[in-house]
# Entry
Amino acid sequence: MRPKLKKVGFPALRLQMHPLLYALTQEDRFQLTQTPPLDAISVHHLQRLLDCHPIPVTRPTTTEYYQCLVPLPFVERLRSHPQRADLMVTLLIYGDDEIQDALTSFLLFEPALALSTQTFQTQNIHLRFRQFKAQGIPSPTKKALAALANCSPSAFR
# Structure
């Protein structure tokens, strides 16, 4: 069965982690770093990023919160953006009978597929950055991209 789509204004978005998502990711490792604010990114770019990444959720019957089926660090960072009220998010609402299968897709298959391209991500950003300049398309500076990636601008070589 296909999930239902729903558009929600960012200020009205009420999310909590699905209990099974919490149980499956409780031993995940990550590095605590201070993430730069997203204020430098225009609301138009942020909206496009949100449009590319619908949020998989399930709707509980006893609360007004959607239960998310993936970790959402980007969405959490958006909560401090000064223009967050102008943003809309797309929700993919899954039924209770689809939760386990959806979590398998999001927590195992998606990261495994992403690993195959991450090796060259910094190199690809460098090459794309050059192509943007060659085509005369406005782009952020390497310094701005490095701040978002929490790395040095020299990483994009």
Observations:
- The chain has six helices and five strands.
- The two ends are 44 Å apart (CA to CA).
- Residues 12 and 139 are 31 Å apart (CA to CA).
- The chain has a mean pLDDT of 89.
